[in-house]
């Protein structure tokens, strides 16, 4: 009789160890939709490590690395940095964390980001959270953010909204088309949004049990 081997078990039939792939959740939404805010709550409640692609790029930009000037000029123009730079930073952060559950925030922001991550890591997301928020509300939040970000000005924000519509929404639509999208109404109070987020993560945990 044939035995069914679960791909997630730690040994293959010949006894060699098989590494279990990490669990990745992509967190998408327009600039200012509340991705970073909600990720901090998810980390507290569900034991994920949180990596914001934008935060990693800003750290790289300030580190004096050879890519620094290029990253700064792209971010200040609201453009998306070439995928290889961002995917390398994400991979390094994941490897150094020692965790196997990751929230990847603000990534993939375009089709090139999505394909590069999949090609380099072989990982597909378990699901994708999408924070849906009207542009006017995102604009208000960005202009009140007060984190000293050079790109949080009205001119760059408008460029970022345009890039979001043209390049990032198609990725959101792709994940919707393959049934992996968890869309959340982000135009509510932080606690209310998190109630919806909790429901999504709780139902995923149930499926795994
Ligand atoms: N639901 C919310 N209602 C009002 N303000 C919010 C909400 N979520 C986040 N904010 C605020 O809006 C700004 C942008 O949130 P942030 O989490 O940085 O968004 P993102 O990472 O998507 O750009 C921050 O100043 C944050 O405190
Ligand atoms: N995958 C990514 C993520 C961010 N970036 C760059 C371009 C974005 O406008 C900036 C800021 O991204 P970040 O996610 O920090 O911004 P928000 O939190 O959505 O306001 O970083 C990128 O080039 N590629
Ligand atoms: Mg953010």
From TrEMBL:
A ribonucleoside 5'-phosphate binds at residues 58, 79-81, 106-109, 149, 160. GO terms for molecular function: ATP binding; nucleobase-containing compound kinase activity; phosphotransferase activity, phosphate group as acceptor. It is an enzyme of class 2 (transferase). Its EC number is 2.7.4.14. The keyword Kinase applies. Keywords: ATP-binding, Cytoplasm, Kinase, Nucleotide-binding, Nucleus, Pyrimidine biosynthesis, Transferase. The keyword Transferase applies. It catalyses: dCMP + ATP = dCDP + ADP; UMP + ATP = UDP + ADP; CMP + ATP = CDP + ADP. GO terms for cellular component: cytoplasm; nucleus. Coiled coil: none annotated. Its cofactor is Mg(2+). One of its GO terms (biological process) is 'de novo' pyrimidine nucleobase biosynthetic process. Binds 1 Mg(2+) ion per monomer. ATP binds at residues 32-37, 145, 188. CMP binds at residue 113. Catalyzes the phosphorylation of pyrimidine nucleoside monophosphates at the expense of ATP. Plays an important role in de novo pyrimidine nucleotide biosynthesis. Has preference for UMP and CMP as phosphate acceptors. Monomer. Consists of three domains, a large central CORE domain and two small peripheral domains, NMPbind and LID, which undergo movements during catalysis. The LID domain closes over the site of phosphoryl transfer upon ATP binding. Assembling and dissambling the active center during each catalytic cycle provides an effective means to prevent ATP hydrolysis. Belongs to the adenylate kinase family. UMP-CMP kinase subfamily. This is UMP-CMP kinase.
């Amino acid at each position: 009789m044939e035995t069914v081997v679960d791909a997630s078990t730690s040994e293959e039939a010949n006894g060699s160890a098989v590494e279990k792939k990490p669990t990745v959740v992509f967190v998408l939404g327009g600039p200012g939709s509340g991705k970073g805010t909600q990720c901090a709550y998810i980390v507290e409640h569900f034991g994920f490590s949180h990596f914001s692609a934008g935060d990693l790029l800003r750290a790289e930009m300030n580190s004096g690395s050879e890519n620094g000037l290029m990253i700064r000029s792209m971010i200040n123009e609201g453009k998306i940095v070439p995928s290889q730079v961002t995917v390398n930073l994400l991979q390094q952060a994941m490897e150094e964390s020692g965790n196997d559950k990751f929230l990847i925030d603000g990534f993939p922001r375009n089709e090139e980001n999505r394909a590069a991550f999949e090609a380099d890591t072989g990982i597909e997301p378990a699901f994708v959270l999408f924070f849906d928020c009207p542009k006017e509300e995102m604009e208000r939040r960005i202009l009140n953010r007060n984190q000293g970000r050079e790109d949080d000005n009205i001119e760059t924000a408008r460029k970022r909204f345009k890039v979001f519509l043209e390049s990032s929404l198609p990725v959101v639509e792709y994940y919707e088309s393959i049934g992996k999208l968890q869309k959340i109404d982000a135009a509510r109070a932080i606690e209310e949004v998190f109630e919806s987020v909790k429901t999504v993560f709780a139902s995923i945990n149930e499926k795994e049990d």
